[in-house]
Q: What sequence folds into this?
DNA sequence: AAAATAAAAGATAAAAAACTCTTTTATTCC
DNA sequence: GGAATAAAAGAGTTTTTTATCTTTTATTTT
């Protein structure tokens, strides 16, 4: 469904935002450990997310990554678009270059509904949400 | 969503089954042209589908690929499972190794519904279906 | 039986994705 | 200002996926 980078990105953003609520920043090393991803690879992804303003960063001692309050409204869709692009929005399930309402592939109509729900899910789920869910103890992100 | 191989496989099976209804077999070269896929790569995929009994094959002059009548009941899910495995059935959207009803990731419950619909779509759509749809002229598989 | 045809199998190559390592730049603390 | 810290940037490497090329095997036709 999503690329590995994208999966890591989602987990990383949630992880960083949790730290941010406590008022502190978090370094690559700790993020990587938390989300069970390779450290340097995580660094690349975080650079990308930072360039795209999904997370913020500060260099130097006591530096690290954090998310600003207004960015808690970032949705899963925003992260997915930032990393994997908008192919889930546009691409045909069968990979046809031309597949539209006017010129549909055999599963176009059925898939449209599924896609609609998937996109709705990605857009409605914001990171502030996840913080609450994970706090509740009923949901997790751990790889154990 | 699916690998390239899998997309090709789906199109190839539909393409072959259409020829089979006319009572004739079809060679790799023609399949590849029809589905706009590289010839030798298509050959590999067809070998795989043949080993897994989703299509049949015959060597020699007048040989080629075909699908038997009973195999028209093959669903998209069967093809996807044969090529990409059953990860859409089992894997967590966020890539967590542990993600279940008892130990859900933050989107587990919402995604479960979407997954259910997706799987239903894949299982309900059989290739005999597609033949009719494409015959009707309202749906297509062409890459033009 | 020989020639022709077409898939099967095996080996190789190219591209993309995933991952690693090293150097540079910005910031803070002393 | 100098040392220490941590991200940014750049330059690899490895693995997986996608694609190509060559040889072998099975079948048919003559």
A:
């Amino acid at each position: 469904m999503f690329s590995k980078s994208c999966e890591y990105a989602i987990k990383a953003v949630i992880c960083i935002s949790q730290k941010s609520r406590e008022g502190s920043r978090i370094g690559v090393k700790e993020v990587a450990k938390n989300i069970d991803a390779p450290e340097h690879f995580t660094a690349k992804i975080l650079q990308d997310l930072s360039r795209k303003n999904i997370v913020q960063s500060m260099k130097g001692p006591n530096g690290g990554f954090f998310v600003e309050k207004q960015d808690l409204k970032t949705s899963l869709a925003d992260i997915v678009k930032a990393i994997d692009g908008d192919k889930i929005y546009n691409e045909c399930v069968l990979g046809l270059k031309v597949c539209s309402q006017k010129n549909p592939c055999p599963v176009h109509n059925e898939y449209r509904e599924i896609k609609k729900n998937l996109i709705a899910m990605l857009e409605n789920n914001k990171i502030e949400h996840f913080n609450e869910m994970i706090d509740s103890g009923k949901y997790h992100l751990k790889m154990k």
